[in-house]
Amino acid sequence: MILAHVSEPLAPSTVTTQTVSVRAEGGAVLPISVNYDAIGDRIEIVLRSALVMDTRYVVSMGQGVTDLAGMRWGRTMCGPLPRGR
C-alpha cells in the first residue's frame, strides 16, 4: 500500500482511479484501487500487480482532485522501490 498524506481535506468524490495513478517511470499505468481517508487526510493506494525491484515508480494526482473549496490539486510524487534482501 502507498499512503499519500495531504495538507488539507480533499473532496472525497474526486479521489478515484481516474484521478490518481501509479506508473513505472516511462511505462504503463499499474492497476490500483484508491481510497481517501478523510479523518487522516491521506490517500490510500492499493497496488493490484507486483512491482519490479530497483524500478522507479511515479504516483500522480491529476487536476481532477480538488479540496473542499473546489481548488484543484495536481501533484506528482516519485521514488525508487527499495532493493530486496
Task: Tell me how many strands there are.
Answer: 6
Q: Give the strand order, joined by hyphens, for the main sheet.
A: 1-4-3
Helix count, DSSP H or I runs of 4 or more residues: 0
- Percent of residues in β-strands: over 45%
Choose one word for the global shape: elongated
Strand-and-helix sequence, N→C?
EEEEEE
Poorly predicted regions are none
Largest sheet: 3 strands, antiparallel
Radius of gyration: 13 Å
- Structural class, judged by helices and strands? mainly beta
Mean pLDDT: 85
- The residue fraction in helices comes out at under 10%
Q: Distance N terminus to C terminus? A: 19 Å
Task: Report what the structure shows.
With 85 residues, the protein is mostly beta strands. Helix content is 0%, strand content 48%. It has strands at residues 2-5, 20-24, 32-37, 42-47, 56-66, 72-80. A 3-stranded antiparallel β-sheet has the order 1-4-3, with no helix packed on it. A 3-stranded antiparallel β-sheet has the order 2-5-6, with no helix packed on it. Strand 5 (56-66) and strand 6 (72-80) form a beta hairpin. The two termini are 19 Å apart. The model has no long low-confidence stretch (mean pLDDT 85).
